[in-house]
Amino acid sequence: MPLATARVSTDRPARYLKQLVSHMSHKATTALSADGRGTITVRSGSCALTPHPGTLELTATAVDAESLAQVQDVIARHLVRFATQEELVVEWSAPIDGGELEPTAPVVGEYLLSHHTPADEILGELAAATREALGDAAHMQVSADEGTLLTMLTRLTGARFAVEVGVFTGYSTLCIARGLADGGRVLACDVSEEWAAIGRPYWERAGVADRIDLHIAPALETLRALDSEPFIDIAFIDADKESYPAYYEEIVRRLRPGGLVVLDNVFLGGRVLDPAYQEARHVAVRGLNDLIAADERVDAVMLPVRDGVTIARRR
Questions:
Q1: pLDDT (tens digit, 0 to 9) for every residue of the chain, 315 residues total?
Q2: Domain-ending residue, one of 48, 68, 96
Q3: How many structural domains compose the chain?
Q4: Which domain holds residue 228?
Q5: What's the whole-model pTM score?
Q6: Which long-range contacts (C-beta less than 8 Å, at least 24 apart) are formed by 10-13?
Q7: CATH of the domain at 176
Q8: Is residue 101 part of a domain?
Q9: Of 12, 178, 185, 197, which sees the most CB atoms within 10 A?
Q10: Same domain, 214 and 288
Q11: CATH code for position 78
C-alpha cells in the first residue's frame, strides 16, 4: 500500500511548489514541468506536486509502507518550513494499494459505454461468443468504446496498412479492418489459432476477412521480418506485457510520419502506478510509459480509457 495523497490548502500553491523543488534539487532528483507541476525523487520514493487554485496536491509513492512514510515526512517538513506567512497543514490519506485503484469508476465506465457510437450486431455477437467460449478470459477483449476508438483512429489516419499485436478473438482486428481505406490491409499477429478462430466467422460476416492477414507466430519474429522502411499507418499493441517495449520499438521505427501506435493496458489495473509491484510485466510497462513520454520520435498522450490507453504519433 505505497500510495498516498494530500491536498494542502494555500493561497500560494505554485510559489511553494517552486521553492520546494528548487531547495530539494540539492539533495534529490527534481523536475519542474512547463505546466507548473513538480516531481521530487528521494532515495525512499517520490512525490508529485500539482498546483490548483487554493490547493497544492501531493502524491507520494514508494515501494513499501516504511519508505512511503519517509517520503511523506521529508516533503511535509520542508513544505511547512517555507510557509512563513501562513500555517500549512499536510494531512496524508491512508496508504492505498495500486491494485485497488479504479481509474474508471464503475458508474463512469457505464456512462461511457452508454454514450459512444454503439457496437453493431456483428460485434455484439462476437463479444457474446467470446464470453461463452472463454469465460473469465473474455476480459482480455477490448471494450465496445475502445473498439469504436480504434475504428475512428484508423479512419482519421487514412490507414492503408495496419499492424495488430495481440488478436485474441478478433474484436479489435475487426474494428481496425473496418476503418481501413480502400485496399487497406491489417497484419494481425498472435500465437493462438484457437482463439483467433472464434473471430473468423464474424470477419467474414462483416465483409473484412479479405483485409486481414493473420500470422500465427511470435509477434517479434513477424515484426522483425517486415521491411525496415517507415510504412505502417497505425498499430495496436495488446499482447504479453513483458514484450511491450520490444513491440513498441519494432513498430515505431517502421511508423510513417503522422502514423499512430496505440497501446492498451498501460495502467495494468493501477499496478503500474504503484512501485511496490515489481513483476516483469509491471516493470516493463512502467518503463515503457516513461520511455514514450520522453521519446523525441513521437508526440504521445495517455488516456484514462478502461485500463489505460496510450496514443503516440510519429513526428
A1: 689 999 999 998 999 999 999 999 988 999 999 889 999 999 999 999 999 989 999 999 999 999 999 999 999 999 998 887 888 999 999 998 988 887 777 788 888 888 888 899 999 999 999 999 998 898 899 999 999 999 999 999 999 999 999 999 999 999 999 999 999 999 999 999 999 999 999 999 999 999 999 999 999 999 999 999 999 999 999 999 999 999 999 999 999 999 999 999 999 999 999 999 999 999 999 999 999 999 999 999 999 888 999 999 999
A2: 96
A3: 2
A4: 106-314
A5: 0.89
A6: 10/54, 10/55, 10/56, 10/83, 10/86, 10/88, 11/54, 11/86, 12/83, 12/85, 12/86, 13/51, 13/52, 13/53, 13/54, 13/55, 13/56
A7: 3.40.50.150
A8: no
A9: 178
A10: yes
A11: 3.30.310.50
- Name the region of 272 (left: φ>0; alpha: ψ -120 to 50; beta: rest): alpha
Please tell me whether residues 74 and 199 are part of one structural domain. Answer: no
CA–CA dist 223, 160 (Å, integer): 17
The residue assigned the cell 521553492 is 19
